[in-house]
Write a structure and sequence with these properties.
- 2 copies of one chain form a homodimer.
- By secondary structure, chain A is of the alpha/beta class.
- Chain A has 2 domains: 139 residues, 3-Layer(aba) Sandwich (Rossmann fold); 183 residues, Dihydrodipicolinate Reductase, domain 2 (2-Layer Sandwich), CATH 3.30.360.
- The first copy, chain A, is built from 9 helices and 13 strands.
- In chain A, strands 3-4-2-1-5-6-7 form a 7-stranded mixed beta sheet, sandwiched between helices. In chain A, strands 9-8-10-13-12-11 form a 6-stranded mixed beta sheet.
- Chain A starts with a strand and ends with a helix.
- The model of chain A has no long low-confidence stretch (mean pLDDT 95).
- Chains A and B meet through strand 8, helix 5, helix 6, strand 9 and strand 10 of A and strand 8, helix 5, helix 6, strand 9 and strand 10 of B.
- Chains A, B: GO terms for molecular function: NAD binding; oxidoreductase activity, acting on the aldehyde or oxo group of donors, NAD or NADP as acceptor; protein dimerization activity.
């Protein structure tokens, strides 16, 4: 085991930050001092780690020279504000927000493109991709040798926890109001989210794409090392607390060998293939699990070059915190 | 105004049957006698129509010779059981279940392919397509002159009411149990539906497609009169009470003229186009409305031949009962 290293987590009180702490503990990560950081509003809380209660401190006052590795599990804005300080202090950075440019902080999924790290030198900067991109990359990467892709179309139904604790609280509040026969005033979303689906997640750019849709496509292309891959992505906010549900259509150039696809997915790391007559869901299958569940594997109704499937994945664990910790483990192997 | 005709509704107590009664009343349909029918279990209830309470009678004991037009708003099984009696009695049939074959009972969306009726002779048999097929046809039909399609990919997020009142009751029950901290035992679905998404709706055939996915593709091809159209369809059950939410990717052979698409959809019958920076939802926009709402109209991120959009539509009204009544009105014009 490597010698222990001192670590900071920026955004430690959020859903992903909390999961990071849990996973660091579960995996027996070689930590010296763990510094939990948040903006002033959330500082002062305590979080349990290896039998001790760690106090969350303000990121504003933190001296990054105290640590060698920083996880950014905060918003893009907070990440972009404090990443320069961490870099200047010589820390390795693992960003979960997507705030750092692709060129500066390559997107890496541990099971898929960890070879990227071999081309990097300290101080390291890596980004753990958006959760749907991680799940898609885990499923698609092992299929690359089997087919040449023309295009991917994905509809990603995201849970309210992708907006953090506030999203979870808002869905719970709205649902409870409605079941008690009271009218709902949406606060966090611009429409009612309880018993409803929102066809837009976050702001839309000048030509109509959401930032997350762009991020998903760009990260997939980088992780799969297919810069020309065509991706149609639609992100939808669903009245679900946790877990990404992805409906994927793969169009290949030639007819798809379904038994070969099935055989490959049965062996793929980080993937659990469900029997064709069943279908995985986030609640009951994916939540709390470290693999992306795949179901509804089928060809096209009218096109032999088409592959359809459904993915259910934990957006907080496998889709965020676990991959980030796996990246840290890889950096340690590389002599962080 | 035509002379009044006697009508029966089979499945009058279900969500769609109830909406049929409402719409017949709203539209001042020329009805003589209205016979409300259901299986024995639901018979005996009363439903208000034009200020009178009509008693629901058993379909088993009904003599179809009493009426000239029958709406089948029951299950496929009930429809297939009683359609032959109605036919033998010389009735016109309008099926909402999809139980009758495409050749026997053509799929018609009033605004799209009503010209089909000109080739038919009495006794008439028509099918009102599945609700997502109606919404898609309304949006796609006016675009046909603008582009030649290579393929459509749709992820249809369906509400629990697509399974009728039992679906609605089950989502309400599960949600309430969970909010009260009690464990959920799924009854109607094989997994928890509250705060979850099911990637499978109904039974799956030998090659993995759901019956509804097949129906959607076949009906779209027939309504749009494009027998070669390639359709990838995935139906998802969402924790939503009413309204279909559809994520659609259109692939055309040539680059798409987005301003022209927008101009056409602004004028299209049965369609309401929402501003690009907003996005319609079923709750708050589509429910109770007689149009399909379209939003998130945008090109591809990396392909000028791609069109993406989002549709929110009332599955019970516009998606079922209203179109069926519109078909009946067309039949009356044709001398039913």
């Amino acid at each position: 085991m490597s010698s222990p290293i001192d670590i900071a987590i920026v955004g430690a009180t959020g859903t992903v930050g909390t999961a990071l702490v849990e996973i660091l503990e579960e995996r027996d990560f070689p930590i010296g001092q763990l510094h939990l950081l948040a903006r002033a509003a959330s500082a002062g809380k305590s979080i349990s780690f290896r039998g001790r209660n760690l106090r969350v401190r303000t990121v504003e006052a933190f001296d990054f020279a105290q640590v060698r590795l920083v996880f950014f599990a905060a918003s893009e804005a907070v990440t972009c504000q404090y990443a320069p300080q961490a870099r200047a202090a010589g820390c390795a950075l693992i960003d979960l927000s997507g705030g750092l440019p692709l060129q500066q902080a390559p997107r890496v999924v541990a099971e898929v493109n960890s070879q990227v790290l071999q081309g990097l030198a300290a101080p390291f900067q890596l980004t753990s991709p958006a959760s749907p991109a991680i799940a898609l990359a885990l499923v698609l990467a092992p299929l690359r040798p089997l087919m040449h892709w023309q295009r991917l179309s994905v509809t990603a139904c995201l849970p309210v926890s992708s907006l953090g604790r506030e999203g979870v609280a808002e869905l719970a509040r709205q649902t409870s109001e409605l079941l008690n026969g009271r009218p709902v005033e949406p606060r966090l979303f611009d429409r009612q989210i309880a018993f409803n689906l929102l066809g837009r997640v976050g702001a839309i750019d000048a030509v109509g794409h959401a930032r997350l849709e762009r991020r998903l496509a760009e990260e997939l292309r980088q992780v799969l090392a297919l810069p020309e891959l065509k991706v149609a992505a639609s992100c939808v906010m669903a009245p679900v607390f946790f877990g990404d549900s992805l409906s994927l259509v793969v169009q290949a150039v030639q007819a798809i060998d379904l038994p070969a696809v099935q055989a490959v997915l049965e062996q793929a790391p980080g993937v659990e293939l469900i029997e064709p007559d069943d279908c995985p869901t986030v609640v009951g299958d994916a939540l709390g699990q470290d693999v992306a569940y795949v179901g509804r594997l089928r060809g096209g109704m009218d096109d032999a070059r088409e592959l359809n499937l459904w993915i259910a994945s934990d957006n907080v664990r496998k889709g965020s915190a676990l991959n980030a910790v796996q990246l840290a483990e890889l950096l340690i192997k590389q002599g962080l």
